[in-house]
Amino acid sequence: MGDFYQNGIITTLHNLSxxxxxxxxxxxxxxxxERPLGLILPSLYSELEGEALPxxxxxxxxxxxxxxxxxxxxxATEGQYRAALKFFGQLPQRHRVLWNEGPRLQALDAQLQAxxxxxxxxxxxxNVWYCMGYVLASNRTESVALHDCDIVTYERSMLARxxxxxxxxxxxxxxxxxxxxxxxxxxxxxxxxRLLVTPLLRALKKCLGEMEYLEYMDxxxxxxxxxxxxxxxxxxxxxxxxxWGLEIGVLSEMYRxxxxxxxxxxxxxxxxxxxxxxxxxxxxxxxxxxxxxxxTKALIRKLATxxxxxxxxxxxxxxATYYRIALDFVETYHNDAVMNGLTLDIHNEEKAVEMFAxxxxxxxxAFLARPMERPFIPSWSRVxxxxxxxxxxxxxxxxxxxxxFGQGE
Length: 409
Fold this sequence. Notes:
The chain is an alpha/beta fold. The chain has helices at 21-34, 52-60, 78-88, 103-114, 124-138, 156-167, 191-208, 212-218, 234-237, 246-257, 287-305, 312-339, 346-369, 380-386, 390-405, and strands spanning 11-13, 37-44, 66-74, 95-99, 143-146, 175-180, 183-184, 187-188, 228-231, 263-269. It is built from 15 helices and ten strands. Strand 2, helix 2 (52-60) and strand 3 form a beta-alpha-beta unit. The protein starts with 10 loop residues before the first strand and ends with a helix. The relative contact order is 0.15. The model has no long low-confidence stretch (mean pLDDT 93). Keywords: Transferase. This is Glycosyl transferase. GO terms for molecular function: transferase activity. InterPro entries: Nucleotide-diphossugar_trans.
């Protein structure tokens, strides 16, 4: 059970009473009559064959307050797309599956590429971006939640608590970030958030001085959570990265576009576990190694837009400061684990810190070598200005795939 303490400059909505999910859903059903609600699920085809997604679908079936569920399907052949339509056909809510490798969506992507408006790399960012476009095109929902499809501890209360702040007609929140304790299987997880993001933000404060942007980022209890919700109008102007910097990029965009009192975070789960990435210490193009570089670059780019001038000497100072702070955190987390009867391997924690410190320098060197790199996908507002009928084309492509390969409405 969470406490009521408010940390930082972002409103925290706690789980103070373990309110029954049925009560939350009754409220949401009432809200949905005034403000229709939706859900985005970015998925790989392989997740349909895993242990998490089938349970997620079972948990979503009673969520009658949802007007639409939009599924982005990556890495699927035609046969796999047909199988996905059948798999998601269990859902009683209206739903659509975006076949991202299908000829129709590939043709639309080619149009956007010709105008330098398409996502430049495959991955979750691209998948989410097209799903956001379909939500705008469909025009069936006013508030939308998004979460991953690999959550093995999923319960439908997570979705109810995640979407509640942007669904409530009397709340003024445009965006809600989910958070939770990354504890499962007797261990404390979430290494990248615990051992990279938080100590790096603290190091940046020491090296650069107090900045509201850094205070804002440090206010989020789990900044790398893949669960967030927003009002529909947010989708028009948000620019998201196509790499592992997605979550940091989304938070940064919300800071740029909205006042802090329009943003919040909500406690959505006591236990949370999902697919774990390998450390990949020997390969900075995969696993947590690539993730840490992308996340660090996302922070560097945002700080550069706020007038910070970076050079090699500054990156060395940031790295050294980070390293000392992160090692102190290892001891903190170890003691927290012991007191709670959990396990935490100090050796592996410090190996991760060493790799992250090295990758801070790699991220800095990459930024200095390619200062004009544009990892952000253009906002939908910009795309619409270049191709005024793009949303109609996207909507028709998805509907045509559904008609041709699906089973009726």
